Amino acid sequence: MKVSQLISIIILSIQSMACQNNKPINLDSNMLIDRIPRSEYNTNMTYYTDKSLPGTSLEEMLSNTTTEMIAFINAIPEDKIDYAYGSFKWTVGEVLQHIISYEEIMLEVALLNAGVISEKKHTVSYNQNTTVAGAKDKSKGDLLAEFKSVRQKTEDAFNSLTDEQQKRMGTLDGNKTSVRVIAFCISGHQTHHFDVIRERYLD
Predict the structure, then answer these.
(1) pLDDT at 31
(2) Which of 112, 147, 156, 158 is most open to solvent, judged by the fewest CB atoms within 10 Å of its CB?
(3) How far from 115 is each of 106, 125, 172, CA to CA, in Å?
């Protein structure tokens, strides 16, 4: 399957989901991240924040990000899930698992920084290998179900934070950031890996 064909399928999937939900997906709205003061995050964070999806609110941005992920996974051919473009490279399924697992880590960091939780679970010890663990035993359907569960927790958590909690400062992987900027990193991290899958796996 060519990249152009896959992108067309994804676009159609997103449009179809919007119609089914009777809720237009506002992908042309202003980038909310552009209105966040730069004092809330350092330059290193822009690698992901600049790739975050648009939205007029944090809730809308995450909703758009969720819709894109579901459409993207649905559009991936089943026989591509176990495909890797080279030796010692992740499979498509492992890339998807990494997106999901690292989102759990970023969400935990956000809640720790916001003061909502105090106990670490996912951030105690992790690296690139631990974020893809178990992916080879999962089907596309398994990964989709796991994503939906994790993303629902992410959306619920950020939507429940007060304005003061969202603006609290902390760190993510050693980088200065406010809690709400981590939500944009979740969106941008997803986009980053979508680009990698399109360019290196599905051509």
Answers:
(1) 78
(2) 156
(3) 14, 20, 14
